[in-house]
């Protein structure tokens, strides 16, 4: 980093957003020691970490000194959820959603352990968490596109012709960040572009319009768990399942149709992180190949989903979505019947650990 660590720490401590340290958890899925946190220390150390250990629970995961954290492995998941633990993926980064469930904070920031601090065009280290918080604390504008990007960003506003009746915006439920260096490509694209790197830093945040889906990436993501947490289920992936690497995208499709239904917003763009390690495209292809075929049916399904008016909470929306997944996608493969059942189990487990969360609907408590 260009700046001395002490200067960065001073800037972070002085930030008015620093007060959210008691309202936000950082969730990290991992199979290895978390040495990468040293680079993030100036930005993340004030916050509580929830680490979800994937794979062998007998392996010891080391966390750098000075971080406040709790660590859960597969044995803990089985102990806490009992039979409902079957909905949490094994040997897949989708296990991270267990951290969303056990958190008691209003906001979640999740990051992968191969993501480092990026630098902006001037060479300054990017405080990704601060930008995510800015995104979540400012409204979204899904009903009318603002050509000057996010009108709530510093130095921006609504452009001429933007309806005044829509300028209040809606609560932002999800902040989707991007990545420099290794792009988030599927296996076929990785194979034909093995050396491609993303070097473009675009200083912009967009609200994804209502009715538009997007491929959500879970490696640099923040959300308001009170608004959308019960829908942030990363599916049934990994060991024992016929598909992988679609966990975050599945969650993204689900949260988007629910946000559209409940009048919530999703932002994408800033902040950037530096994605340091490309995964093996041949391994990825084995995990993805069924999903590559299935997505041609899955995406039209989500584009056509209609949720009933009485689905006024995230849980009700999600249970209805599970029902429609079973009815319409179950015809493609028995896996989707299994996934739909897991979606229901996830909601039951969520409500078991978060009994008051069912009162949240449309961003307001009942």
TrEMBL record:
Site (Required for activity) location in chain: 160, 167
Family the entry assigns: Belongs to the RGP family.
EC number(s) per entry: 5.4.99.30
GO BP, one annotated term: UDP-L-arabinose metabolic process
Subcellular location: Golgi apparatus
Species, as recorded: Gossypium darwinii
GO cellular component: cytosol; Golgi apparatus; plant-type cell wall
Alphabetized UniProt keyword annotations: Cell wall biogenesis/degradation, Glycoprotein, Golgi apparatus, Isomerase
Role summary: Probable UDP-L-arabinose mutase involved in the biosynthesis of cell wall non-cellulosic polysaccharides.
Protein name according to UniProt: UDP-arabinopyranose mutase
Reactions catalysed according to its record: UDP-beta-L-arabinofuranose = UDP-beta-L-arabinopyranose
SUPFAM superfamilies reported in the protein's UniProt record: Nucleotide-diphospho-sugar transferases
GO molecular function terms attached to this record: UDP-arabinopyranose mutase activity
Transmembrane segments: none
Sugar attachment sites: 160
